[in-house]
Amino acid sequence: MALSGRRLRGNDLTDDTARQAVEQGNRAGRAGFGTFATVFVSLLALVFSGLSLYETVLRRASLRIFVPEVVHYGREPGGDRELFAVPMTIANHGARDAAVTGIRMIVRKQDDDTPAKTFFAAWFVDAAFFARSKGFDRATRTFDRNPRPKRPFAPIAVAGRTAFSGTVLFNVVGNTFPVAIGEAGTYEIVLRLETDLDDARGVADRLLTTQTEPIMMTMSLPGMSHQGLRRGELAQLRAVPEAPKIAVPSTEAPAPSTDAQ
């Protein structure tokens, strides 16, 4: 009986040892999973912090230009030197600052062999530039002409995550003749920004630079008066709407047939 009792106590010890080993293994497994989860969450937080740092501090300037559907065309009063007044918004989608040192505009008539003409940003103008002249004043017997106030173009500083909005007046580069717009028709206009971006971080900035894409527009001039342009009047070029790319299905139900059965 004593031997049997000792054998039973030995089995009890073996069972206790096994249970302890299992419990230790479970605790180790839980600890290992917890450590993995902690490391994963930490790495995820680090990635998001890095992305936030890049988007808010390190991302280089990325400029885009937006133009409305109407561009104004005119000529210097009493002359033939062409002018284009273009309202625009220049948005900086990057985190760092940028400067627009100049803007070039290329104009050519669609489906025509006439060479394209280049214009440069020369002035800033405001609403007073577009005010209509009152014409002949019978009291003073003089013509009341709009003086068209304007100020010289200067480089535009666009801070990160901000935008510039204004109207830019373009003058022709080089000779006045032949004029870019001599008659009504459809014209193609290209606007390209000349920029100065921050290269403080050297090679990294040059590798991460995104080029500012020019915008191309097709504008229609329904009519123009040469005499009116010489008096200081402005003509409007309007964007040609794009043709729909897909057919829109009709939502109307078909009419019931009236044929006799």
Give a verbal description of the structure:
Residues 1-8 and 245-261 have low confidence and may be disordered. The chain contains 3 helices and 13 strands. The chain is 26% helix and 34% strand. With 261 residues, the chain is α+β, with helices and mostly antiparallel strands. 16% of the residues are buried. Strand 4 and strand 5 (117-125) form a beta hairpin.
Please outline what is shown here.
By secondary structure, the chain is of the alpha+beta class. It is built from 3 helices and 13 strands, in the order H-E-E-E-E-E-E-E-E-E-E-E-H-E-H-E.
What descriptive keywords fit this protein?
two-stranded antiparallel ribbon, 261 residues, disordered N terminus
Task: Tally the beta strands.
Answer: 13
Relative strand content: 25-35%
Radius of gyration over alpha carbons? 36 Å
The global form is elongated
**Biggest β-sheet, characterized?**
8 strands, antiparallel, barrel
Low-confidence stretches: 1-8, 245-261
How are the strands of the largest sheet arranged?
2-3-10-5-4-11-12-13
Instruction: Give the overall average pLDDT.
Output: 80
**What count of helical segments does DSSP give?**
3
N-to-C SSE series?
HEEEEEEEEEEEHEHE
Roughly what percent helix? 25-40%
Q: How far apart lie the N and C ends?
A: 108 Å
Which class best fits the helix and strand makeup?
Answer: alpha+beta
What's the arrangement of secondary structure elements?
Elements lengths: L1 H57 L4 E4 L3 E6 L6 E11 L5 E12 L7 E9 L9 E3 L4 E3 L6 E2 L3 E3 L4 E10 L12 E13 L5 H5 L7 E7 L4 H5 L4 E5 L22
Antiparallel strand pairs: 1-3, 2-3, 2-13, 3-10, 4-5, 4-9, 4-11, 5-8, 5-10, 6-7, 11-12, 12-13
